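$ ./design --mode recover --in tokens.txt
reading tokens...
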């Protein structure tokens, strides 16, 4: 089989891209329940499912992989799964939540980098689960500069949100200074209601 081939072209069995670690503990596959052996793909340790070709990486390993260009290239080349993004014309699959193979708690589904289009399952503190093909697509997204673009978008959004908050606070300050008081010095109920509504609008819109 060629590098990057995910399934055997003759029998359809998932290709084993990793080198098994002898005597290492297995983990149950979050996708199909099959026991996943611990392997090394290049220099990167992970667990791979021999049945559905999914991959589990702990948090530190995945972070190191995303920040090391050489290791990213090695894993993306070996693990296979195609380079294309999601097909917008494909029927939507039913959303299902799966359990972390370590703590058994339900993992969060997240669009990696907020813009990659690759929805992965993450357990905070333990790791991330990638269905067949997803890890390679994530690594290609990182290689193309997707994370840098996502960070730039986040920074711009934070700047815009701060400007909106500053304008909202200034508007509230102006409203308070211009609010009409009764002769007893107490604010009217109408003024209280108007100020409260304005604060909620600024916070929620």
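writing sequence...
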């Amino acid at each position: 089989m060629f590098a990057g081939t995910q399934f055997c072209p003759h029998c359809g069995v998932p290709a084993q891209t990793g080198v098994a670690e002898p005597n290492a503990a297995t983990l149950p596959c979050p996708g199909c329940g099959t026991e996943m052996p611990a392997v090394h793909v290049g220099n990167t340790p992970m667990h791979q499912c021999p049945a559905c070709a999914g991959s589990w990486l702990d948090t530190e390993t995945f972070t190191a992989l995303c920040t090391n260009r050489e290791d990213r290239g090695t894993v993306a080349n070996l693990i296979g799964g195609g380079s294309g993004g999601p097909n917008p014309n494909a029927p939507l699959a039913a959303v299902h939540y799966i359990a972390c193979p370590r703590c058994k708690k339900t993992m969060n589904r997240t669009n990696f980098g907020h813009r990659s289009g690759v929805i992965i399952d993450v357990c905070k503190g333990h790791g991330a689960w990638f269905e067949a093909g997803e890890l390679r697509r994530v690594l290609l997204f990182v290689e193309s500069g997707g994370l840098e673009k996502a960070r730039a978008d986040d920074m711009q959004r934070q700047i815009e949100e701060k400007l909106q908050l500053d304008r909202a606070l200034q508007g509230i300050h102006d409203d308070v200074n211009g609010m009409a008081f009764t002769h007893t010095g107490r604010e009217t109920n109408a003024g209280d209601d108007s100020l409260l509504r304005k604060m909620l609008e600024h916070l929620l819109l």
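exit 0
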